[in-house]
Design goal:
This protein has 297 residues and is mainly beta. The chain has 1 helix and 16 strands. It has an 8-stranded antiparallel beta barrel. The protein has a 4-stranded antiparallel sheet with strand order 2-3-8-9, with no helix packed on it.
Length: 297
C-alpha cells in the first residue's frame, strides 16, 4: 500500500513538472508569435486611407479699387443720393476686399506606397501618397458700379480718392481642392511590438479649382492651378498581423499664397473684375489608414 502511494505521489510530481514545462513552452511560443507578428519591419508596402478634410481659407487683399483707371462716365442725378458713375458700363467685382469666407468639409481618400527601415525600436521611412480632398471654401465679394460720391465736378472725375464700387450685389466664388500628391518623411517609435507612433514633415502638391457661383447657387465655369505646400503628418498604427496594420493619422497642409490672375475668364457675363483674388489655404486631414507590407523582413 505504501509502495502504491509513493508511485502515485511520483506520478503526480512528474505530471506537475510536465504541466509546468508545457506552460513555459507555450508562453515562449506565444512570445515568439507576438514578436513575429509585428508588421513594423523593414520593407515595402502599400497604404490606403479614408477620412474627412476641412480647410481654412484666408482671402488676401487684391488690387486696390482706387488704382483702377477708367475712361468716360455715365451721369445720373438723384436728389437723395447724387453720384456720377464712370468707366465701364458693366457691373464690377471688387477683389480688394472679401466680404465673407465660408469653409465646408469633405471626404478625403489616399493611396500610396511606404518604404520603411526598422532599427530596433525605431523606424525611418518615406511615404508617397496620391488622393483627393473634397473640402471647399466659398468667398463672397461686393459687386456693383464704379461711381463718385456727391456728384463731383467733371474736371476731377478721374481722381480715385472719392471713388468706390457701390455694394448693390454680392458675387460668390468657390475654391475647391481636387487631387493632391504628397511625399512624407516618417520617423517612428515602436511600443510593445504592436503599436507604432510616427511623425514627420513633407511636401504636398494640391490641385485647386476656382469657380463662379451663379444666381441658382451652382458653380459655373472654372480655372485650375497647382499649389505647393509644406506639410506635417503624425499618427499611430496597430499591428493586426505580421503584414497588416490599422492606423489613425492627422495631416496639416499649408497651401502657399496664390493670386488668380485669370479670374476674368469666369466672372459672370457683363461683369468686369477689379484686381484679382488672392487666397491662402490650410487643410486639416483626418484619416483611418490600412497598411500592407510585402515580404517584410
Amino acid at each position: 500500500m505504501l509502495i502504491k502511494n509513493n508511485r502515485t505521489l511520483k506520478v503526480h510530481k512528474n505530471f506537475k513538472l510536465v504541466y509546468f514545462l508545457f506552460l513555459a513552452t507555450t508562453s515562449l511560443q506565444a512570445g515568439e508569435e507576438i514578436e513575429g507578428s509585428s508588421s513594423f519591419q523593414s520593407g515595402i508596402g502599400i497604404t490606403m486611407g479614408l477620412g474627412v478634410a476641412n480647410s481654412s481659407t484666408s482671402a488676401k487683399d487684391g488690387t486696390a479699387s482706387n488704382n483702377l483707371k477708367l475712361s468716360g462716365y455715365y451721369y445720373r442725378q438723384n436728389p437723395q443720393a447724387p453720384f456720377r458713375r464712370i468707366g465701364n458700363p458693366n457691373e464690377l467685382i471688387d477683389f480688394s476686399n472679401a466680404l465673407k469666407v465660408k469653409n465646408k468639409s469633405g471626404v478625403a481618400w489616399t493611396m500610396g506606397a511606404l518604404f520603411q527601415k526598422r532599427m530596433g525600436f525605431y523606424t525611418m521611412g518615406l511615404r508617397w501618397l496620391f488622393g483627393s480632398l473634397a473640402n471647399s471654401s466659398r468667398i463672397a465679394y461686393s459687386s456693383g458700379f464704379w461711381h463718385y460720391k456727391n456728384n463731383p465736378d467733371i474736371n476731377n472725375a478721374y481722381n480715385g480718392s472719392e471713388s468706390s464700387i457701390s455694394e448693390n450685389n454680392i458675387t460668390a466664388f468657390q475654391l475647391k481642392n481636387k487631387w493632391f500628391t504628397s511625399f512624407i518623411f516618417e520617423f517612428g517609435y515602436i511600443i510593445g511590438n504592436r503599436i507604432q507612433l510616427f511623425a514627420g514633415p513633407g511636401v504636398s502638391f494640391q490641385r485647386q479649382k476656382l469657380a463662379s457661383i451663379n444666381s441658382s447657387g451652382k458653380s459655373s465655369g472654372g480655372i485650375s492651378k497647382t499649389v505647393s505646400a509644406p506639410m506635417v503628418a503624425l499618427g499611430a498604427r496597430y499591428a493586426l498581423t505580421q503584414r497588416m496594420s490599422l492606423g489613425l493619422e492627422y495631416q496639416r497642409q499649408w497651401m502657399s499664397k496664390k493670386t488668380w490672375h485669370q479670374i476674368s475668364k469666369i466672372v459672370p457675363e457683363k461683369t468686369t473684375a477689379v484686381g484679382a483674388p488672392t487666397f491662402k489655404t490650410t487643410n486639416n486631414v483626418f484619416l483611418m489608414t490600412l497598411t500592407y507590407m510585402f515580404g517584410a523582413k
